[in-house]
Design goal:
The chain has helices at about 20-25, 60-65, 85-95, 105-115, 130-140, 145-155, 170-185, 195-200, and strands at about 10-15, 35, 40, 55, 70-75, 80-85, 100, 120-125, 165-170. It is of the alpha/beta class and about 200 residues long. The longest helix has 16 residues, at about 170-185. The relative contact order is 0.21. One of its GO terms (molecular function) is kinase activity.
């Protein structure tokens, strides 16, 4: 029997909503390939190249864009480029392994157009006030940049209906459980049954 294609899970939401924390907790129970994005932004304290992101220069990133081969999606967010290398994602999916993308909303919308089987999950903050508190508490950016992120977040939240699922992150444990439920449901989707599998069932 042919190898069934893995699930492509696209987790997105406003900056500071807790995507990274949810992913780290999800890793404890789910086996998946985490696609590490390229970015042109500066690394934050504690971040490592090739672990959190591949930190690239603007020239390196733009050269990859113009090659026409390098990214499944790419977007510019608050003055920095972000992108998902395409080849590794396709390889893992074809081998039957689930793939998780943790990306910005612009990039998620590109994946939605490029990959019919992408499962888009929007992580929702309890409120904009709580989102601001999280960004301020992170203490990695000046207030001016945080306000730009919040302005962007308002528009992104209003786009939530564009995604297949919306998970409220008012409690990390519950948010992880919701995503686990999504994964279970998608694995059981009749749309993932192949003609070969159906034929084998009726022949026995």
């Amino acid at each position: 029997m042919a190898q069934k294609r893995g699930l492509l899970l696209v987790m997105t939401g406003a900056s500071g909503v807790g995507k990274g924390t949810i992913r780290q907790e999800l890793e404890k129970t789910e086996d998946y390939y985490y696609s590490i994005s390229w970015t042109t932004r500066e690394s934050r304290p504690g971040e490592e190249n090739g672990v959190h992101y591949f930190f690239k220069t603007r020239d390196e990133f733009e050269a990859e864009i113009h090659s026409g081969l390098g990214f499944l999606e790419h977007a510019e967010f608050v003055g920095n480029h972000y992108g998902t290398p395409r080849a590794a994602v396709e390889e893992q999916l074809s081998q039957g392994r689930n793939v998780l993308l943790e990306i910005e909303v612009q990039g998620a919308m590109q994946v939605k157009k490029a990959m019919d089987d992408a499962i888009l999950i929007f992580i929702m903050p309890p409120s904009l006030t709580e989102l601001k508190n999280r960004l301020v508490g992170r203490a990695t950016e000046p207030l001016e940049k945080i306000e730009k992120r919040l302005s962007k977040a308002r528009g992104e939240i209003l786009m939530a209906h564009e995604f297949k699922y919306c998970v409220l992150n008012d409690n990390v444990e519950r948010a992880v459980q919701d995503i686990q439920a999504i994964i279970r449901a998608e694995r059981l989707s009749a749309q993932r049954l192949t003609d070969e599998e159906l034929s084998e069932i009726v022949q026995h």
